[in-house]
Amino acid sequence: MIEVLGFIAGIFSSISFIPQVYKTWKTKSARDVSMQMFLVYELAVVLWIIYGIAKESAPIYITNGFVFFVSSIQITLKIIYDKKSAK
Description:
Blueprint: H1 2-15, H2 18-27, H3 35-54, H4 58-86
Helix pairs in contact: 1-4, 2-4, 3-4
């Protein structure tokens, strides 16, 4: 049962980034997105993934893997749109 709770918590944490990624993609602007925050968060997520693997906790490493993926998309969009706006 505790594994299910872990997955539910991880799913909510994971989907919390989707609205920001969607807004950035839709508006083609990431001016108000903090690159530093996302880079620090990605470091934290990598550490959570390592921790989850070490503890053999699927809810931790699977959901944080998804968060890493979504956060990487946001960072990529930030780089692309910041370059376009600088021209």
